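Cross-check.
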Amino acid sequence: QVQLVESGGGLVQAGGSLKLSCAVNGSFFAINTMGWYRQAPGKQRESVAAIYASGRTTYDDSVKGRFTISRDRAKNTVYLQMNSLKAEDTGVYYCYVKTDHYVGFQENWGQGTLVTVSS
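Predicted model, tokenized:
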């Protein structure tokens, strides 16, 4: 059983910063991919950023240069540092973690944390 515990969402003014955290608890062989998705009101869930086992990172064009994804392997935690926030960054942010259970992979999702950016 794998659980993802998210924290760090909230209300911030445009131009401000927030840092999201997602801790992975439970039993698994290794962590493969970690990432963040978001869902704005009335829109589909979209990928924001990802970090792979190699350390390579990818970002949606809309957040490049403003958001930074990182991971602490010792703590099994992934972070999303969000700077220069805009109103269009508002939404529920979901943590995504792909865990390796040796016999196969499992996709896991956090419960979501709300980020509201006021203009």
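The chain has a mean pLDDT of 97. DSSP finds no helices and eleven strands in the chain. Passed to J.P. for a second look.
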